[in-house]
Design goal:
Blueprint: H1 3-11, H2 21-34, H3 49-53, H4 56-61, H5 63-77, H6 85-107, H7 117-139
Helix pairs in contact: 2-5, 2-6, 5-6, 5-7, 6-7
Amino acid sequence: MNFSALAARCARVTPRQPHVALPLLIMGMLYWLSSQPGTPLPDDPALYAVFYWVPPSVQNALHVPAYATLAGAWFWALGAWPSAARMRAAGAFAIAAAYGLFDEWHQSFVPGRYASLTDVALDVAGAVLGVWLAAWIGSRPRIIEPQINTDTHG
């Protein structure tokens, strides 16, 4: 199966109420990531060393795509309930932004980590971007025309 056929197939997937599991899974992953101590501990698994090699500026920049993904997932999942697109967008944004605020509060209790208004602002910016992208993608035509083979050497 080529990429365009896969994209067309994914575009036709209509969300159902159990699809809320996707954004909840993303939220769980974000919670786990923010639960990692800010400084390595002697008994940490080797996998955690990856988190300490990433510079803080890059970690901060990753808030935007992470929360854009979360907001986009909520926008898609909330499509299982009948509502206006604006209400769905507002709900997805509110959930993602509130979770960003909660996550920063949660980080304030993790050793070596701290809460940051800059991170909250990046989370909110990511949520705005994610809702905008999800709405834009959702408004595009869902039919991808198959490419016609014009090769006459066949």
